[in-house]
Please model this.
Amino acid sequence: MNQPPVVEWTEADEARSARWRSENGAPPPRRIVIADDRTKADEAYRLACEGTALLWRGDFHNARQLLTAMARRIDRRPRKAPPADPAQAFHLHRAAQNQRARVLGMLLVPLDADLAVPLPRAPDVREACARAYGAPEPAGASAPTGTASLVSLRELLGLIGANEWRRKGVEIPALGGDRIHPHYGVFSPARGEYVDLVAEAPLPSRELAFDIGTGTGVLAAVLARRGVRRIVATDQDPRALACARENTERLGVAGQVEVVEADLFPDGRAPLIVCNPPWVPAKPTSPVERAVYDPGNRMLHGFLNGLAEHLAPGGEGWLILSDLAEHLGLRPHAELLDAFAASGLSVLGRLDITPRHPRARDTSDPLHVARAAEVTSLWRLGAAG
Model:
């Protein structure tokens, strides 16, 4: 990993410095003031909106309460009616989300050199931090003096939550209730519609399959449980590769699944090639969002453009894709069909499923109309005659 940048501030009339940690690449704050249990929510919110970060030196639970109070102040602000144009509504929603994250990211907590939080009543976050940032540096390694690093409380709480997901796992009905354990920064299969499609589609072969962009390895595991004798699962994210290997070992299918580092396709051809690419053509703002947002549909087009030359004769490519981008006005349906034709592919069939996640029923969501209309499809594609 690259060395984190250094952030500097003044505390008790002394110059201080520490490493700055931000998984989404947020720049170090330019100005930092000290905050503690006496800090009022209105003042904290005002400073954060102005771009001033608050380094917390009080009780950890009180810091969490302050963060909640700041979030309430953001949510109380009057909302304009969403524009009629769905694409404009989406971009405004993303901008509001990013602004909210920026403001709430201004409440900082310290981490010691061993990735512990040196605050009263702080939980033990060392495991969660080590899994996201890497193991602490050995004693004697060069580092800024004073506090070892600073991180936004919002990010730290995200690390804690992600570590709980990893410990407990996500129950997958298509695996008979067995669990997938997502690593930090790897998209969790909590939305299981796409997994169900792969579990139900008729297999063209049980000899060999490629799983492109495997992530947690859940689709490779489903194919293995369905009797596919060999699966080559690819990804280029080190976290995803480690996650997929751990999950296939845990599920007892590592003998059938080979996890390899590759940008899309491995070498050779297969009678079945499966891909569940990001479904919204927009810029991600955090590592885990790369499973949802794909600028310019890079992965989608990369998969389609290379599919025909990697399919064995008579083979099928399964493209699992939500049509949410179509309802948001970000990708016309005709564009997808044109991409199939331009890549030398024909549609052999399609299986559809509607979303079950709560956001599809949340009428307060600015994107509710698009989410309620969303359909996830498994497109069965073959090389055109």
User: Anything to note?
Assistant: Residues 280 and 293 are 5 Å apart (CA to CA). The chain is about 35% helix and 20% strand. The two ends are 47 Å apart (CA to CA).
